[in-house]
Amino acid sequence: MNDSGASRLALLRFLERVQTRDLERTRRWIADEEKREAELQRGIAARPLAPDWLIERRLSRHNAVYVHVGGCWNAGSRSKGVERDQALRALADGVTACPQCRPDTALGILD
User: Fold this and answer.
1) Which residue has the higher pLDDT, 5 or 95?
2) I want to staple 75 with a disulfide (CB 3.0 to 4.6 A). Which of 14, 24, 79, 110 is the partner?
3) pLDDT number for residue 2
4) For the sheet containing 79-82, what is the strand order?
5) Where are the beta strands (DSSP E) in 9-110?
6) Alpha-carbon span 13 to 20, nearest angstrom
7) Is 97 exposed, middle or buried (0-12, 13-18, 19+ CB in 10 A)?
8) pLDDT tens digits for 99-108?
9) At a CB cut-off of 8 Å and minimum separation 6, what does 71 contact?
10) 47-51 LR contacts (CB < 8 Å, sep 24+)
11) 12-39: string of b/e by CB count within 10 Å (b at 16+)?
12) 64: nearest Cα among 29, 35, 91
């Protein structure tokens, strides 16, 4: 009877060690995830602001295709941020205004 009590106690101590180790591992995972989340938030905060206006160029990068409002979902990967006066000048020079974001309307240019 005494041996079974000691073995039961030994088993419970073993279970306690296993659970403690599992809890410590879970806490490390939580700490790692908190670090990743903090790094992500710092990266988002440090991200430069989106430009107000974009000019999208052709593959050759010489001729402009569209003028976009900054953040336009339809702006291609060959778009570059520009100042307001550059966007106005491009529209005045005949570059097409994006039909989705309508930078000509946002810039106050009437058809």
Assistant:
1) 95
2) 79
3) 54
4) 79-82, 53-57, 64-69, 96-97
5) 53-57, 64-69, 79-82, 96-97
6) 10
7) buried
8) 999 998 888 8
9) 50
10) 50/81, 51/81, 51/82
11) eeeeeeeeeeeeeeeeeeeeeeeeeeee
12) 91
> Could you give the CA distance from residue 72 to residue 100 in angstroms, rounded to a whole number?
8
- Say yes or no to pLDDT of 1 above 70: no
The token duo for 88 is 């106005």
* Element housing 20 (H / E): helix 2-46
Q: Which two tokens stand for residue 9?
A: 């106690």
**Residue 61 confidence (pLDDT) above 70:** no
Q: Which residues contact 36 (CB under 8 A, 6 or more apart)?
A: none
- Cβ contacts of 88 within 8 Å, gap of 6 or more: 107, 109
Cα 43 from chain centre: 9
Q: What is the distance between the alpha carbons of residues 64 and 90, in angstroms, rounded to a whole number?
A: 8
